[in-house]
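Sat 14:20. Reprocessing the chain from the morning session after the first attempt stalled halfway. Input below, unchanged.
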Amino acid sequence: MARSDSTFSLSSLARLGFTGLSAAAATLDELATLVEIDRAVLLDGAVAADPDQAAEGMLRVAWRDPAVLRPLLRDDETRAVMWRVFGASAGLADFFLRHPSELSVLAEVGSLVPNAVALQERMLVAVGAADGFAETNDESAWVALRIAYRRAIAEIAAVDLSATEPVLRIAAVSAALADAAGAALEASLAVARVRVAATCSREEVALTQLAIIGMGKAGARELNYVSDVDVIFVGGTADEAQLDESRSIDIATSLARETMRGVSAIEVEPPLWEVDANLRPEGKQGALVRSLGSHLAYYDRWAKSWEFQALLKARPLAGDPELGDAYIEAVQPKIWSSAAREDFVDSVQRMRERVTEHIDPEDAPYQLKLGAGGLRDIEFTVQLLQLVHGLTDSSIRTRGTLESLDALVAGGYIGRLDAATFAADYRTLRLFEHRLQLRDLTRTHLMPKTPDGLRVLARGSGLAEDGNAIWALWGSVRREVRDIHTRLFYRPLLSAVAALPEEERTLSTEQAHDRLAAIGFRDPAGALRHIGALTTGISRKVTIQRHLMPIMVRWFADGSDPDYALLAFRRVSERLGDTSWFLRMLRDSVGAAENLTQLLSSSRYIGELMEWIPEAVAWLDKRERLRPRDAAQLFEEARAIQARHASVGTALQAVRALRRRELLRTAMGAVLDVLTIDDVATALSAITDATIQSALRAVRRDVVSAEDDALEFAVIGMGRFGGQELGFGSDADILYVYDANGIDPQKAQTLSAQLVAGLREHLTDHRVPLELDAGLRPEGRQGPLVRSLAAYTEYYRRWSVSWEAQALLRARGVAGSANLIEKFHTLADSIRYPQEVDELGIREIKRIKARVEGERLPKGTDPHRHLKLGPGSLSDVEWLVQLIQLQHAHEVPGLRTTSTLGALDAATEADLVGAEDAELLRDAWILASRVRSAITLRTGKTSDVLPFDRRELDAIGNLLGYPERSASDVEEDYFAATRRARRVFEQLFYG
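Finished this time. Tokens:
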């Protein structure tokens, strides 16, 4: 063997990508000698996925026929093509070894793939077809067909492999491969006609219609290099008078079988691919060929949802064009109405999941096609979006994945970024698939499992430098695809849109008016105006609104107040303007749109706040964002706000905005059942604490000079605020206390009064009122608003009455001097937890309770409907618990709490209240608290009376978790709970 010269130095070969360097040098030496070409020229243009394979392949051809190779390897352009083709495909190298004369195709390669007309013409010429009949019926025709097909594949591959950015040529290459498959079937059918005509008359065969409908990737013109070609055969007769349909179906069945054999049977030239007709009606058990009428009858009566999904990509591929077009025209309406079937979306989702579940676990990490993050995730997502929204939008009734993504973007059904990512990842995965199948011309959908295989794929695709990088790219693509697939494929909107009644998908103005009235809108004309304002125009925002509106209107109608909900939604939409995330989130997020409709249709409190804080809609995208913020976080943010603003006015304006935002967050969480009643009470109390604390810091900075900084001032929470049991709309009962701490007493009193005035002024919020109610102070509304600690001490020890000691049971310092708060707590403890029970005071409390029930109840109010003062309601439970605290807290430490339910638990543990009685009291207190908050959420106003109006009761029931039309159940449950609690109260309170 000749010694390799410097041109073939091992280092230069390594730079070109050769791996078996010594063997490669020897192979190249021998090849250069056989084709009589300079060694340096031979390597000029040697760019290949696997240059070792390329050299070996060309050498094998040279052994057989070096004369064919010489002119090709001497031409610079053709030589470069040969290196690419032989380096990418051992399968094509084997084809050229069998048929060296076909190598001439590589000298004819242009910049474009061959078109469908040219491909069909070449293959029909190969079988000598005329008027639909091939020249001969022997196996030589099939061999000629297969050679012509593989020659075409070689040309397509050469164009593909020569592309600077092959990932951008995926659509054109896949379409050409599908066109080549169609041309092969057309030529095979021409041979089949001649073969069948040997058993029946040529005239009968000529009268027999057979349309071959391409399905799947063949139908969508996105075929791989090696793939089963899915088809459906439709038969018929061109003239019923000369050939009846039954006979034509028999002949068409024979034609179909012979056509399939022409490309799939074992012959001298290997089979091309499998023709798969299993997507036909009844699958493998069904007739191979049916008439058009038989197909339609099956689809009308028996077809399953997946069969319509399969038909989405159907197109005439070969055979009788008129019959093929008639078939497509007839099945189109059935395809695009299939999504309206019951559970259609769920069935498609389950089918995709079943495919994933049946993957061999060992193959799962390598599955390009079927695995998580693979091609099927993209295809199923696109097809489901098409089928659901294609019910009413003909612009997205397309076949190919990439063209369908473009149509979905144009229609506003998918975001531009998601679509661009999907499209890029689809092209990447298809390029991987093409390169892997091209290598041995075998059907595979698995990523390489060896370093060498990954290296060749990296070089062949041009998408990465080496095998490690290509594997990393594969992982990145999988994650991206899976993320988008999960978000879009499981959109709640899909099931909802598919389930819309037909009469709600497209309506005239008159029909829409009547339909809105029928589903619960009280002012359908007003609703139509709002819908028109949201959906009129040509912007992308308007386009998305048009898609969202039918289902959102339906969801609004399922709520308590659809008219207000639609108005609020319009206001929020207008406030957000052209904000890109808003409508995209409603369209793509899991549950965001439905949750928003639930919030707006059930709560004016939320709707009014959201109008001013529209960005809160973003919280619906992640459930955890609806949970209250930690108290420490709130205090820190409020402190930062106060420090950031120089004037008390601007500081408190920002604090009020913070309070509204957190009230809205808590309300949203409460309505969507993210929060319990305890969570709500804790959150509302923390929000109010933080608001008062930050307000006090800001006002003090404005009122108290440095020389008077020794002044101590504090705000004490009382009532439900002190007990951290606030509901929506609750007032904040408070006391104000100060300690001069060395400064002039009169000045301390004046400064403290100014602090109180500043707090009351700057915490006034007309949108969400915060009432600082000091009515529980000593001497009630007749006493001074603010007192010194010494004055409180003197008053409580000399003049206080029993109800004031009772009120102190809920006292809790919330803002101001920690030292002063501690002193006030010590004072309060001495009054509210007395060592000896004052029996006269206890009797006085019982007398006051009886008087309150008679005097404080608003005139004309049904006592049984009053949530605060009615029998068995909040006051009964709270007064009973407070009485027990006054009597026993000195001996029972657990009773020393400001919490009603906490004290009730302690009383139960101390056997002061029976467990069953405690449960009845707890149930009544919680239900009354929930109803009270629900009324505020529903109306945006505070009320202590259970409404009579059935619609309002239904709405309150919905907020409480009752099913629709539960007004009577709400009433009955409330009356029953309070009746049982009242019996316990009377027994334990009055004895």
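The beta strands are 208-214, 229-237, 275-276, 289-291, 315-319, 712-718, 732-739, 772-773, 786-788, 812-816.
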